[in-house]
Write a structure and sequence with these properties.
The chain is mostly helical and about 90 residues long. The chain contains 5 helices and no strands.
């Protein structure tokens, strides 16, 4: 399976979460990959590098996963997920 989670994506997420060490980089890469796959499954394919709404949802889901609370993500972001999924249907270059 091809992953689009580059070291730059991991670094951007770490900055957002105020994580300054690299000890968890492989775990963060894995969590980001899982979140990206889940958001794509729910909302359709998109390029995480060019779609800011999709990237935001991946980061938010990863934040929940990182804090062992991923079961609350979909309930808390249901409106955003639906909106993104609908918007993403019309995007040919998602």
């Amino acid at each position: 399976m091809e992953t689009s989670i580059t070291p730059e994506i991991v670094q951007e997420f770490k900055e957002r979460m105020h994580i300054t060490h690299s000890a968890e980089d492989s775990n963060l890469q894995r969590l980001l990959s899982f979140s990206y796959a889940r958001i794509k499954s729910a909302c359709g394919d998109f390029d995480i590098h060019n779609n800011l709404t999709g990237k935001e949802l991946v980061y938010e889901r990863t934040r929940y996963a990182y804090n062992d609370a991923v079961e609350y993500f979909e309930d808390n972001f249901l409106s955003q997920l639906h909106s993104f999924g609908l918007d993403n249907l019309g995007d040919d270059d998602a």
